[in-house]
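Input sequence (176 aa), recorded before submission:
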Amino acid sequence: MYEENEIKVLKINATDIINKLNVLWAQKVFDDERVISSYDYVDWTKTLQSKWQHLKITEEGTTKISIDGRSESWLITSIKNKISRKREMESLLDVLWLQKVAEVRARRVSFERNWVDIDIDFFPMIQPFVEIDADSSEAIEWCCSQLWLDVKEWFIGSTIEAHKQLWVSYFEVYKK
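Predicted structure, token format:
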């Protein structure tokens, strides 16, 4: 299982962040639309374990399946695996009584600098936000200081929680 230090900052000026990253010589590694398909049980008497919040297939250059949750220390916990055949994976999920409950197309611009990943996400129903992940909280703090991001605006949470912070229900607005 992989745990990472990850924060999100809402209420950003995406163009300003991208310009600052270019000045900092960050390497742009992705700039395209992603398709994120979310799954849950057909039988609503069952649910994903409370630790696990989001089972999804993400298409962004490569296709991967992942399940995200939180560790006991509240770090984001993920199990991810690249897949080569989305249809076969969807068939497997169907056999396991998991169905697609939401799907969204969202642009992502990704940069890397000094082992820090910086993603600017553009979801259709909320304003852009930045996600920063690194091996340590010090690396995240360094990155935020370079981008002039206010510590008071950070939060540790998922994309679903970013929507909640902005009073938008992820599963309602992207319902399949």
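Checked by second reader. The chain is about 25% helix and 45% strand.
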